[in-house]
Structure formats: C-alpha cells, structure tokens
Amino acid sequence: MVHVLAEVPGLDAETEATWDAILEHLEHASASIGTSARGLSVTLTVEASCPADAERMGEWMVRPALAASGLRAPSSVQSEIEFAAD
Questions:
Q1: Is residue 86 one of the residues assigned to a domain?
Q2: What are phi and psi of 64, to 5 degrees?
Q3: Neighbour count for residue 21 (Cβ, 10 Å)
Q4: 8 Å CB contact between 22 and 36
Q5: How far apart are CA 41 and CA 62, in angstroms?
Q6: Which domain, by its residues, includes 36?
Q7: What is the reported pTM?
Q8: Residue 15 lies in a domain
Q9: pLDDT at residue 69 in the model
Q10: Tens digit of pLDDT for each residue in 24-47?
Q11: What pLDDT score was predicted for residue 86?
Q12: How far apart are CA 72 and CA 10, in angstroms?
C-alpha cells in the first residue's frame, strides 16, 4: 500500500463528484480517498520491485488523476509505503 498526501489549492471547495472522478482514474489501484489537515489523502495499492519505486509510482498515479479530475496542480506531493501483512 502507498499513502500519498497532496497539498491541493482550493481543496475545501471540491465536491463529491470530484472525489468520484479521482477514484475513477485510480480504479485499477484499489484506491481510497479522503482529506486530512494537510491536504488530500489517497491510499492505493501498487506492485513495485522496491520501496522507492512504490513511492514514485504512487505519486505518478495521483498527479494525473488530480489533473484529469479538474483540480489545480498540487503544490506538493509526498508518499510513504506500508507493507501488507502476509
């Protein structure tokens, strides 16, 4: 699992339709979405060969999903991984 936090300008004014659009673009990654005090929080599943790749993949997947959903570019995007229990 990769947790991605994006600081998106104007996030407070977004509607549920925007959330649905973001999730539609991340559908293949079993994503969930919400907000936190620091911005938009997305948790998604990726398969990667190493932890660094997983973090980058999470960021690379979230940025275009936000853009395709009509949100302005995030001022920052950061991610962290969490390994699924076997």
A1: no
A2: -70, -30
A3: 18
A4: no
A5: 10
A6: 2-81
A7: 0.79
A8: yes
A9: 85
A10: 888 888 888 888 777 888 999 888
A11: 45
A12: 8
**To the nearest whole percent, how much of the chain has pLDDT over 70?**
90
List, for residues 4-16, the tens digit of each pLDDT value: 988 887 666 567 7
Using the 8-state DSSP alphabet, how is residue 9 labeled? Answer: T
| Tokens 């001022």 -> residue | 75
With the CA atoms of 35, 37, 72 and 58 taken in that order, what torsion angle do they form, in degrees rounded to the nearest 10?
-60
Q: Look up residue 11 and give its amino acid.
A: L
Query: What's the number of domains the chain is made of?
Result: 1
Tokens of 41: 């929080």
Q: CA 59 to CA 49: how far, in whole Å?
A: 16
Domain containing 74 — which CATH number? 3.30.70
Return the residue matching tokens 């991340």: 26
